[in-house]
Every structure is written in C-alpha cells, then in structure tokens.
Amino acid sequence: MSFKASYIKLLESGELVKRVEEAKRHINNCKLCPHKCGVNWEEEFGVCQTGDKATVSSYTPHLGEEKVLVGDRGSGTIFFGYCNMSCVYCQNYDISFYVRGTIVSNGRLAEIMLSLQNDYHCHNINLVTPTHYIGNILEGIYLAAKGGLETPIVYNTGGYESLETLKILDGVIDIYMPDFKYKSEELSRRLDLVEYREAYRYGEELKLRLD
Ligand code: SF4
Questions:
Q1: What residue spans define the domains of the chain?
Q2: Percent of the chain's residues with pLDDT above 70
Q3: d(CA 81, CA 148)
Q4: Which of 28, 30, 41, 99 to mutate to test the pocket of ligand 1 (most atoms within 8 A of CB)?
Q5: What is the mean pLDDT of residues 13-35?
Q6: Band (186; pLDDT cuts 50, 70, 90)
Q7: So what's the architecture of 6-210 in CATH?
Q8: Which has more pLDDT, 190 or 52?
Q9: Less Cβ around it within 10 Å: N or C end of the chain?
C-alpha cells in the first residue's frame, strides 16, 4: 500500500497513546459532544444512553457508500449502536434508538478493524456514528495499529462533536464525512428529539466549527 494512514505517524511518535488517554478521560465526566452531560458512564447515562464499552451493530465491506470510498473491495464499515442525536428521520433508527448489537471490548474492536483490512481487504475503516465511542475507538485503533493496521480511517458522523473531541481526533482520521444536518437552529429543534435539552444548538455549534 503506498498511502500511509495518518495515525501511523502518531503511533510512531508516541502521540497516539496520549490521544487515547485524553479521550478516555471523558468516561468519568463526558463532554465528548456539545451536550456536555458531564456524566460518569460507569454510574449514569447521558443523552446518548451509552455505557463505557462500545456496542457494534455490524461490520462489513459496504458497497453502498460514496463511490470514492467503495472501490472494488468495499468500505469497511463498523456500525455503532446508540447515538448522541435523535433525529426523527433517522435511517438507522433500529440501531441508534433500539440498539441491536453486541457489546465489545476495545481489543475486539481492534480485531474487527484488522479483519476488515486483512480478511476483506477493504479500502478504508469506516466508523459510522462514532462520536460517543471516541475513547473506545481510539484505543481500538491504537491496538490494531500495533498489530499491523495501516488502512485509512473514515469518520462518518452526525456532525455533533465538541471542539475538544475534534482536536483529539486531529491527525488520527484521514477522511471526515460529517452529515450537515441543519443550518437552521429552528429546524434542528423541530426535527431532533433531543430538542428539550437547553444546551442543544446544532446550527450554532456547526457554524463555530466552520469559522
Ligand atoms: S457523548 Fe455527548 S450525549 Fe453522550 S454522554 Fe457524552 S456529552 Fe452526553
């Protein structure tokens, strides 16, 4: 492979393991996304209802993603359960609302990434709805990279991350694929079931990141 995934450089410099630690700090006081729940995941749930281990709904070479990601061997998608948004039109509602999936360790997450690379020869590892699992995912990437992962990472998100989270991810992710859901604040409050959260402000948060 001629393309070198960007996290390899961070692994070699020792920076990747620091990013894992930074992300995992949120387990005790989660502010991974602008909801800023501040919860300890071992004791209570935030808006995303997530625990301290990742739930994987499925993983597979996906031929239905954007053409540039699919090539001839597919994009190696990992669909995660739960979500930090609750859009009324969610196309993956059975995964994000009803959570069909398996709770996995971060080591198992690394094995899944390596399988998508080594067994299925996917062109990329495509993390679908990853925001609330950044700590688990980064440790998975770290372990997998030590085990030979070198495939680029796609970050396929609803676009509601905190700025701190985006800084933690900087240099780890090769391709960002955020859904730009709402420009209008009014629309985001009407179509997202988390609108009751006082702090919820999708449009304003997104503008901050684009500025
Ligand atoms: S990821 Fe967002 S919604 Fe989930 S607990 Fe953390 S701050 Fe709350």
A1: 6-210
A2: 90
A3: 26
A4: 30
A5: 95
A6: confident
A7: Alpha-Beta Barrel (3.20)
A8: 52
A9: C
Which residues are bridge partners to 176 per DSSP? Answer: 155
What is the mean pLDDT of the segment spanning 183-206?
Answer: 66
Q: What distance in Å separates the CA atoms of residue 190 and residue 37, rounded to the nearest whole number?
A: 21
Cβ(23) – ligand 1 distance below 6 Å: no
38: left (phi over 0), alpha (psi -120 to 50) or beta: left
Nearest residue (CA) to ligand 1, atom 5: 46
pTM: predicted TM-score of the whole model, two decimal places: 0.91
Q: Decide if 197 contacts 175 (C-beta within 8 A).
A: no
How far apart CA 84 and CA 131 sit, in angstroms, is 7
Pairing status of strand 175-178 against strand 153-157: parallel
Token pair for residue 125?
């590892």
Q: Distance, CA 41 to ligand 1 centroid (Å)?
A: 9
